[in-house]
Amino acid sequence: MKKEIIICIIIIIVIIIGNIITQNYSKKTFNDLSQKLESLREDLIKENVDKKASSEKISEIQEIWKNVHNKLAIFIEHEELEKTETSLNGIKSYVEMEEYADAVEELDKMSFLMEHIEDKNKFILRNIF
């Protein structure tokens, strides 16, 4: 009986530590991406949008996303990540077509999705049950 209790306690501790590590990683990643997206958003709502600078920022965001996608896929639902990636591709397409209002809308959608993923994976009582 004592061995089983010790094993259960060890498993619970490992789960909690793993959750803390994954939460910190996703929070840092999404904060970095959110800052880049906010910078891009500020560029897109200007009256005279610099298409080249905006395209470079999108490429930078895509590079960051490519680097973190496989790591995030380990502990986040693939459907959520696909929605976020689809929004990122939509932003790129709208900027290439110079439809900046639609790009801002898609950018806001991507920001919301990232916030949703972060909230959904928090270790809080509401998410456990």
Short description:
The protein is mostly helical and about 130 residues long. It has helices at about 1-45, 50-70, 80-95, 100-120, 125-129.
Strand content: under 5%
Structural class category? mainly alpha
What name does the CATH topology carry?
A: Four Helix Bundle (Hemerythrin (Met), subunit A)
User: How large, in whole angstroms, is the Cα Rg?
Assistant: 19 Å
Helix share of residues?
A: over 70%
Write down the overall mean pLDDT: 90
Indicate the low-confidence ranges by residue numbers: none
Walkthrough of the structure:
This protein has one domain (2-128): Four Helix Bundle (Hemerythrin (Met), subunit A), CATH 1.20.120. The model has no long low-confidence stretch (mean pLDDT 90). The two termini are 28 Å apart. Helix content is 84%, strand content 0%. The radius of gyration is 19 Å and the shape is elongated. Helix 1 (2-44) packs antiparallel against helix 2, helix 1 runs antiparallel to helix 4 (100-120) and helix 2 runs antiparallel to helix 3. The protein is built from five helices and no strands. The chain has helices spanning 2-44, 51-72, 78-96, 100-120, 125-128. With 129 residues, it is mostly helical.
